[in-house]
Design brief:
flat, mainly alpha, about 240 residues
């Protein structure tokens, strides 16, 4: 128990160090540049303390739960030797952690409202809901597909930089032919997929899988899945815009 509290205290100090630059920047521009007092100072201090505590507990939770879970499941699938189940799990992990991502839901709803105002889709509530739902499903499927590609890359030992470079070539080509109204949404969709749940689980999966396969280096082969998860939504969403 004492060791656990010591670990939590070290994480708390790390959170203080990580948040300090943000606090200093805000305080500098508020006091020195804008030359005004900070509004609701007490509420801001309480909120900052809650953020500090939440960040510390979140990191502790990752270390205790998600990272070991992802790595242990990767080892278990590698021992099982079933490629089909491993790829199904990779797709389900990417899809499941993305489809309920709050940032993606917000982007999809905002995009549907703007699309309706621009007469890109119908202005009825049903049309907007259908557009937002289709956008969410497209992004979630793309992330699932990205994790499958990333896992397959680890298994085959393919160089990640060639695949990422090829992916961005496809993004440039798709940008040239996709509707202008969907391009910005597609680019933003690539960012909202890197959520607080997807990143640690997918990273742990990649590292655990690379560690359990003979001839694979976890440092070289275990990372790169998140890059695929950020890249493929751009392609899929622009394709969605072309088709829809």
């Amino acid at each position: 128990m004492l060791e656990w509290f010591n670990s939590l205290f070290r994480l708390l100090l790390g959170s203080v160090r990580d948040l300090a630059p943000i606090v200093l920047v805000i305080a500098f521009f508020e006091l020195a540049v804008l030359q005004q007092s900070i509004p609701n100072l007490f509420s801001m201090i309480v909120g900052l303390l809650l953020v500090l505590l939440g960040l510390t507990l979140f990191i502790q939770g990752l270390e205790m739960g998600l990272f070991p879970l992802g790595e242990s499941m990767a080892h278990a699938f590698a021992r099982k030797g079933s490629l089909l189940w491993l790829l199904l799990f990779a797709f389900a992990l990417g899809f499941g952690t993305t489809v309920a991502e709050p940032a993606l839901i917000a982007i999809a709803e905002e995009a549907s409202e703007v699309a309706a105002q621009a007469n890109f889709i119908g202005k009825t509530a049903e049309a907007q809901e259908s557009y937002a739902f289709g956008l969410r499903m497209t992004v979630a499927i793309s992330v699932g597909a990205a994790i499958v590609i990333g896992v397959f890359r680890i298994l085959k030992g393919w160089p990640v930089h060639y695949m990422i470079a090829g992916g961005y070539v496809i993004v440039v080509i798709m940008t040239a032919i996709a509707p202008r109204q969907i391009i910005g949404i597609a680019y933003d969709a690539g960012g909202v997929t890197t959520s607080t749940i997807t990143v640690p689980l997918v990273t742990a999966l990649g590292v655990g899988l690379a560690s359990s396969i003979k001839g694979r280096n976890p440092m070289v082969d275990g990372f790169g899945l998140i890059a695929f998860a950020s890249l493929t939504p751009m392609i899929f969403v622009m394709l969605y815009g072309i088709l829809i």
